[in-house]
Amino acid sequence: MTKDVSYVTTGSNIANAADIMKSLDVGIVPVCDNNQTPVGVITDRDIVLRSVAGNNTNQNVENVMSGNMVSVSPDADAHEAASLMAQNQIRRLPVVENNKIVGMLSLGDLANVNIHVDEAGQALSSISKPGNEMK
Predict the structure, then answer these.
(1) Is the dihedral of CA 80, 82, 88, 91 positive or negative?
(2) How confident is the model at residue 128 (pLDDT cuts 50, 70, 90)?
(3) How confident is the model at residue 135 (pLDDT cuts 50, 70, 90)?
(4) Does position 118 have pLDDT exceeding 90, yes or no?
(5) What domain of life does the native source organism fall in (predicted)?
(6) Would you say 12 and 58 are in contact if contact means Cβ atoms under 8 Å apart?
(7) Which one of 60, 78, 89, 98 is CB 3.0 to 4.6 Å from 115, fit for a cystine?
(8) Judging by DSSP bridges, how do beta strands 100-106 and 92-97 pair with one another?
């Protein structure tokens, strides 16, 4: 997983999130409340579809973020993380410990650990096809 994850707060302007994405060359940034508790994520897709396409680029992160964040604890194993990614069709998984963001796990990270190659491939296949779940 990637540690030292940058995040924005719900009250941040979407430009702040876009600046972080640009500087880190990422497409997703965790969103935290004022207590630094993760409450969602904002993606480059969220910004484009919910802000730019609606010609309303002067919005707070809270108005365009994806809520109901799926996360994993740092103690989870690679199999559990791959299964969560497949079931929720996501390529990035925030890592949360004691209600604080401590890292971000990507599908690429899973490809570098000792899990079955087929399992990583099944996770990617499930993420890429709407409605499919990893079996």
Answers:
(1) positive
(2) low
(3) very low
(4) no
(5) Bacteria
(6) no
(7) 78
(8) antiparallel
94 and 38 Cβ atoms separated by less than 8 Å: yes
Residue range 20-71, pLDDT digits in tens: 999 999 999 999 998 889 999 999 999 999 888 877 778 899 999 998 899 9
Q: Residues 36, 60: one domain?
A: yes
DSSP state of 49: I
What is the longest distance spanned by two Cα atoms in the chain? Answer: 45
88, HSE (Cβ side, Cα atoms, 13 Å): 18
Structural domain boundaries enclosing 37: 1-69
Calpha distance 26→6 (Å, rounded) = 11
Structure pTM?
0.80
Domain count, the chain: 2
- Of the residues 46, 69, 92, the one at which a domain ends: 69
Q: What is the pLDDT of residues 13-31, one digit of tens each?
A: 999 999 999 999 999 999 9
The last residue of a domain, from among 69, 87, 108: 69
In residues, how long is the chain? 135
Instruction: At 134, list the tokens.
Output: 């990893």
- In this structure, the answer to whether residues 43 and 104 fall within a common structural domain is no
Q: Same domain, yes or no, for 5 and 43?
A: yes
